[in-house]
TrEMBL record:
It comes from the Bacteria. Pfam families: ABC_membrane, ABC_tran. It is a multi-pass membrane protein. InterPro entries: AAA+_ATPase, ABC1_TM_dom, ABC1_TM_sf, ABC_transporter-like_ATP-bd, ABC_transporter-like_CS, P-loop_NTPase, Type_1_exporter. GO terms for molecular function: ABC-type transporter activity; ATP binding; ATP hydrolysis activity; ATPase-coupled lipid transmembrane transporter activity. This is ATP-binding cassette domain-containing protein.
């Protein structure tokens, strides 16, 4: 079985992520004042449970003793009998009825407390998971673009879905572990009430079970780490499978695609089977210890300590309840250890994102401080974009010595594939910050502090259209544009999308299902172009945003753009001649170097 990540799906080093202590601290920070109330209700439920058990002693002893008051009765039974005689319950039947009423009252109270406990625990555990998920989303959304770009989609998907799901499991194990553990303590306390010696014997046996659990938990934690890697691989292969479906069908390579996918899930399955085997072994060991405990209680209780019949019955009930409780607690500890690597993995990525943010990322919620002057030219001087490679080295992706675009200019950005065109326009969009040199508009230079203001006046249409499950109107106004129907239709007409929306039964209010999957690639691009046109901006960037359109359509769209350009600078990355023909200025990017060529 593979034990390392392999070159294709290595993720962040989970070992740097977090410990169990970090998880407890995170829960404490989340729950804050609620922890005391939650622990109190868990304890109250356990106390009521054990009180019910201890109450069995007088019930059983009263029955065993019958009317002959001299038969063996413990101090507890004598005390309760004295109380009942004081209120006039003298016969065995009357005392049993009295005890029965107390018992039923206890059961009713316990039911109310249990219900409350379960609700509180569910609210707390689900709330905690939601908090972790939201924090992760927020950190990722506010991370710098080059940092986000470093992660593979499968890695992020795996963290947001599989690992968060496993963390949910871990929290469930933890909360049920606490409940069952506290209950176990209560049972143990009941055993001490019946017989201190037997209580100590049970404590010793629980300690032996704990040692077994600790050993197996270590192994389960290792297995959990391997499962992390395997899950990453499954997610990677799942995205590859879905992305590659069309190409595979065209090349009749469905079997090859399926074979790769089957290979990826086999390892995760193997690890899951190994874990179940480990868990089964631990469960068997504890059950064996519990049987020994039951035998010991019987022999010691009857032969050595000399417990009476009632006490023996209650001890047997305690051991019978304690045994499955112990199995659940200790296998829960093991499951927690198995699921912990998911939390470690989430924290490892969060740590990377936080470190990146601390070294100059986007500051969330920061208000734009002024805006770049629209009547000034857009300029780049001796500028370069660098990224950090996985090996930690700085790589220069693109550089430019001197670029200047006057307001009202349509600029074509051309050059071979992989030359750095997208990186260059991402720099002007503020997605990268200059590593050297300067990007500016008049006196307004782009840097970490001015970036929000800069980006408030940029509209960017990427090659891959982004359409979400909302109406056409919601998609066009995303994220925060306010526009009336007339403005929406005008933008749609300029983007050549008017007829697409006019055909839809509900027009602007038609829901876009499945991210607009039923539209063609070119149709989705046209809608996204209309969205980009609606955003108030002095710099419009189209990064191959018309690549899926036919030449005739593209020509008419670029013609209209040129005509309505106003004061805007339009940067258009394209491999098409249409863009070259309509451009006022041309930039060529070759081998990471951008120059003016016309
Ligand atoms: N985060 C990164 N780390 C390392 N290399 C990167 C990173 N981002 C981009 N690159 C590399 O930088 C080069 C320029 O990429 P870019 O996307 O700007 O090219 P492009 O000219 O737009 O290509 P195309 O026309 O094919 O879209 C490519 O070789 C790409 O692999």
């Amino acid at each position: 079985m593979r034990s390392d990540a392999g070159p294709h799906y290595a993720g962040p080093n989970d070992a740097d992520g977090a410990s169990f202590g970090d998880l407890l601290q995170a829960i404490r920070a989340y729950a804050a004042d609620g922890i005391f109330g939650t622990l109190s209700i868990i304890t109250l439920a356990a106390v009521l449970e054990s009180a019910g058990l201890v109450l069995l002693v007088p019930v059983a002893e009263t029955i065993f003793a019958g009317e002959g008051k001299g038969a063996a009765r413990s101090g507890l039974t004598m005390q309760i009998a004295a109380w009942m005689e004081a209120v006039g319950l003298n016969s065995v039947l009357q005392q049993l009825a009295g005890l029965g009423v107390i018992f039923i009252a206890l059961v009713a109270l316990r039911a109310v407390v249990l219900l409350r406990r379960d609700i509180v625990l569910m609210q707390m555990s689900q709330g905690f998971i939601d908090r972790v998920r939201l924090d992760f989303f927020s950190l990722l959304a506010h991370a710098d673009w080059p940092v986000i770009k470093r992660y593979r989609k499968a890695e992020l998907l795996n963290t947001m879905t599989t690992n968060v799901g496993r963390l949910g499991q871990a929290i469930r194990f933890l909360s049920s572990g606490i409940v069952v553990g506290v209950l176990g303590l209560a049972y143990l306390a009941s055993a001490f009430v019946v017989s201190v010696a037997l209580g100590l014997a049970l404590l010793g046996l629980i300690a032996i079970g704990g040692v077994f659990a600790a050993i197996w938990s270590r192994r389960s934690h290792r297995l959990g780490r391997q499962l992390n890697q395997a899950n990453r691989f499954v997610m990677h292969e799942t995205t590859t499978f879905l992305d590659g479906m069309k190409a595979a069908k065209a090349a009749r390579a469905e079997d090859e695609l399926s074979r790769r996918f089957a290979g990826s899930i086999a390892e995760a399955r193997l690890i899951s089977v190994q874990f179940v085997t480990q868990q089964g072994r631990l469960r068997n060991s504890i059950q064996f210890i519990a049987s020994v405990a039951a035998l010991l209680v019987l022999l010691l209780g009857y032969g050595v300590i000399g417990l009476n019949g009632g006490e023996l019955v209650v001890m047997a009930a305690i051991v019978m309840r304690l045994a499955p409780n112990l199995v659940t607690t200790l296998t829960g500890v093991q499951s927690l250890a198995h699921a912990m690597p998911a939390f470690e993995s989430i924290r490892a990525i969060e740590g990377e994102l936080r470190r990146a943010k601390a070294s100059g990322g986007i500051v969330p919620g920061r208000e734009p401080s002024g805006e770049p002057p629209a009547d000034q030219p857009l300029e780049a001087k001796a500028v370069s974009v660098e990224v950090n490679s996985l090996a930690g080295e700085n790589i220069t992706l693109v550089r430019a010595d001197d670029l200047l675009f006057a307001p009202g200019t349509l600029v074509h950005v051309g050059g071979p594939s992989g030359a750095g065109k997208s990186t260059l326009v991402e720099l002007f969009a503020g997605l990268h910050l200059p590593a050297q040199g300067m990007v500016s508009r008049g006196a307004y230079a782009l840097d970490a502090a001015s970036r929000p203001g800069w980006q408030a006046r940029v509209s960017f249409a990427p090659q891959e259209p982004f359409i979400f499950d909302g109406t056409v109107r919601e998609n066009l106004c995303w994220p925060n544009v306010e526009a009336d129907d007339q403005q929406l239709w005008a933008a749609l007409e300029t983007a050549g999308a008017g007829d697409i929306v006019a055909r839809l039964p509900a027009g602007l209010d038609e829901p876009m299902l499945d991210g607009g999957a039923r539209l063609s690639g070119g149709e989705r691009q046209r809608l996204c172009l209309a969205r980009a046109l609606l955003r108030p901006a002095d710099l419009l960037i189209l990064d191959e945003a018309t690549s899926a359109m036919d030449a005739e359509l593209e020509r008419s769209i670029i013609g209209r753009l040129r005509q309505d350009i106003g004061n805007r600078v339009v940067l258009m990355v394209s491999h098409s001649l249409n863009a070259v023909m309509h451009a006022d200025q041309r930039i060529e990017v070759t081998g990471g170097h951008a120059r003016v060529v016309g």
